[in-house]
Amino acid sequence: ESLAQNKDFRPNVAYIPVQRFVNNQEESHLYEISAETKTAKHIAGPIAAPDGSIDVTVFGSALTSGGMLYLCAFNRNSIIGYDLNKLPSTVEKMTCTIEVPDLASPNDVSVDPDNESVLYVVGGIFRRMCVCCCVFSNSAYGHVYKVDLSNNNMTEVSSGLKTLAGVEKNGGKLWVAQLFNVVTFDTITFEPKALVRQVKELQSPELRQILSILPSSYNWNQAIEVTATRRSRAFWLLDLAAIVRRVVDWKHLHHKNIQ
Description:
Layout: E1 4-5, E2 13-22, E3 25-34, E4 41-44, E5 47-48, E6 58-63, E7 68-73, E8 78-83, E9 94-95, E10 98-100, E11 108-111, E12 118-128, E13 135-148, E14 153-161, E15 164-170, E16 173-178, E17 181-186, E18 192-197, H1 205-210, H2 220-253
Parallel strand pairs: 5-9
Antiparallel strand pairs: 1-2, 2-3, 3-4, 6-7, 7-8, 8-10, 11-12, 12-13, 13-14, 15-16, 16-17, 17-18
C-alpha cells in the first residue's frame, strides 16, 4: 500500500510495510529495498501496536530525517510510530512506541518537512448508524487532519472531500489525492487552491506506442472515475466489515447473556 523514504536518513533506501499470512494469521511486516539490490530484505515483523496487538492493518507510511517511521493503522483508527534506529539486527517483532488515536480510517500520513513534529493525515470520519449504535469509521467522507506531536494536538483542517488516498506537503502546499484527482491546499488557511486531473494529454511518444492497443476514443478520465468509484466502494465495504467484526467480538465476549 505504501513506501516510506527520507534521503536525509538513509539515501537510496526505502521501507515498505506489507501484509503476509503466517500460520494462517494475517500479520504486517516491514521490508527494506534499495537501489543497489534487486530483492527486498525482510527486516522486522510482525508489526505490533504499543499495546502488543499484532492485529494491525497498515496502509500509508512516512519517515522522518531522524528515522522515525509512522504507519497508518487503518483498522485501529490511529497512527503508530517506531524509531528505526532501534531496530535489532535480526528479524523480530516490531512493537511501536507511539500511537495517535481517534483518526478515522487513516489511509496516508505525511511528515511536514519544515517541522517534523507535525503530521498530516488523510482519512475518513466517525459516524453512528443510529443514536444508540456504537461509533464506526467511514472512509468515504474524506477529511484531512493535522497532528502536532509536540503538544499532542490534533485538528481537522479540511472536510467535505471524497475517499482520500494520499497526502504530501511540498513547496508550501499540501497535496491531497482523492481517488480520481489531486487537490492542493494553502497550509496557512487550508483553502483549496487547485484541482489537478491525474490524467492529462499523453505527450510521450513511447507511452503512446505502448497504449496504441487501446481504441483512440478511450476515455481516460472516465476510466479513472470508474476505478475510483469501485475503490471507494471497497473502502465502504471495509468499514462495514469492521462493524460486523465488532458485533461478533461483542457477542463472543458476552455470549452467556445473549439469547
